[in-house]
Model the fold of this input.
Amino acid sequence: MFANSSRNLLRTSIFHRCKSTLVVAEHNNEALNPVTLNTIAAAKKIGGDVTVLVAGTKCGPASEAVAKVEGVAKVLVAENDAFKGFTPESLTPLVLAAQNQFKFTHILAGATAFGKNVLPRVAAKLDVSPISEIIDVKSEDTFVRTIYAGNAVLTLRSKDPVKVITVRGTNFAPAAATGGSGAVEPAPAGDYAQSLTEFVSQELTKSDRPELTSAKVIISGGRGLKSGDNFKLLYDLADKFGAAVGASRAAVDAGYVPNDLQIGQTGKIVAPDLYVAVGISGAIQHLAGMKDSKTIVAINKDPEAPIFQVADIGLVADLFKAVPELTGKL
Amino acid sequence: MSRILVGVKRVVDYAVKVRVNPEKTGVVTQGVKHSMNPFDEIAVEEAVKMKEKKLASEVIAVSIGPSQSQEVIRTALAMGADRGIHVEVSGKEYDLLQPIHVSKILAKLALEEKADLVILGKQAIDDDCNQTAQMTAAVLDWPQGTFCNKIEKTDAGLTITREIDGGLETIKTKVPAVLSADLRLNTPRYATLPNIMKAKKKPLKKVGASDLGVDTNPRIDIISVEDPPVRQAGAIVPDVDALVSKLKEGGHC
Done:
């Protein structure tokens, strides 16, 4: 029995040595996107060496930040005008070149608009089936993800030689941003200029509030707000908490707030400590985006609203009275 | 003038509360209402609009799946697609069919049918993968315009506004290209009864995945499908004061 277990140990350690993960960092040429830290945490759970690829037109800030992250062994830097706008058509050949040189067993990115755009293209080029938005790592080839808007949890084993994975950031506590000393090296050189696409411009929603997917508190509004102007009630309440403001699809479709505030199956997935749903009925598609929040508060005048089935604290009241009163009493 | 291939998937209707089967191998789909994946309706609408604006000459709707997939092709035809292609994959093979297989099939068809554009939904609401458009673009080595909020034809190609995390971004792509539709690209039309009747007469070709030379060997094993954890029932508080004290109790303020 002793011999058996030591043999198992040996086998495990061999596996550990064989595993190596490439994390594709997300940044905006000025700062690292925090989801990269959650993704590195998932990479550490898989085990083995963690290498981070930083590509962009300006990689200094992100590569310096990533080199200090605990558990990062190596940082590959690719600074090139070809990566303007982080187009998948330019990044894919770079990731493939890195893969070709280092033979990673896993390639990861955060399940953001960026990761979702780039990684499936990489996977197709490697002829492997990518795995979207994992919420847990069971072993080096077995992963957990949700399907049907979070109403079923799928555990799957990948048969592919290289696992290409996007990671749901809210399910992995971020790796420590300090304490690491990764070696910074240039990424494999190549001609990554391409003529298929061209980045033109970005129109970002300006806000002083915390970023939605990493906020500790989120105040979210739905159709019940009745107009975009009325969202001011939520901004005032959010100020009290230092919270981010989100919205249901109904509020976005009605034009009350911009698209990027949408929380749900097809918007952002959030899991703050406190989620306050105001005037949101709680459709399946909305719940998919927020039901992992630690504490859910619902304010709705309809006692039958499905949101009350997931809320820890419910208040059946007219939001136009209750929200200002709540803001005043905090 | 271009030819557009639109991918449509038959999925459990978005309003159905799905149930995991007792064997924990999947969700119950027998006797459950199915319909066209909502994002695919948006893709079909966009393709038909392009044809109405004379930017496209023909719209071909493709669905991959068991024989019932023909229903969603008929829906696409009733919305204005010109003809359909049903790639039959069923049973166990369909249960383990992944976007990697679908993208290879679509890429093959795009070339066979000489399509200039492939428009897909950004994700299917059953597997929630959000992969097929990106992978189809990769197989074809075409540019990808994912999560489209607006698509405009220009002399040189397309100008696309995309939904990204912080807002919107604009890119230009060459044609041919693969696009994926986000929710706000358009509002899909309803199929009217006369159009549903007409759609029954539109051509629908059936092919097998093997006829297209695409290997559909499974890339994953399903270990289990389970119910998500159930949240503990909460409390209804009578007024704002009670809410404030609960929040204080929880350390939230």
Observations:
- The CA atoms of residues 233 and 320 of chain A lie 8 Å apart.
